[in-house]
Amino acid sequence: MRFCLHEEMAPQELSRRLATVITHVDEIMQQEIRPLVAVDIIEQLHRQFAILSGGRGKDGAPIITFPEFVGFKHLPEEDFLNVMTYLTSIPR
Asked: Which top-level group of life is the source organism from (predicted)?
């Protein structure tokens, strides 16, 4: 998984949240009995705090872009995890 960060976002907050995703990745992958679909998290996706442009890294990992998002530090952890889980589960 590759991430692109725009300058205005607090790097410490993004790093902390990404560490949470990385720490819980096995748990996230195991817990989903039914796949997370866009309609389940449509409001979270509409906020566009993370965008999947369709690009892939050399290793095939999705490139996720984090544009400037004023309310990022107030974003609930669950919303962040749901969007990261969804974006990283989209097949090629």
From this structure: Eukaryota
- CA 32 from chain centre, in angstroms, equals 16
Query: What's the token pair of residue 19?
Result: 């560490």
| Per-residue DSSP letter, 52 | E
Enumerate the domain spans of the chain: 2-89
Alpha-carbon 16 to chain mean position? 13
Mean pLDDT for each 10-residue chunk of the chain (92 residues)? 54 78 65 74 92 87 87 89 88 74
47, 44, 50, 77: which is closest to 62 by C-alpha?
50
> Under a CB-based contact definition with an 8 Å cutoff, are residues 45 and 83 in contact?
yes
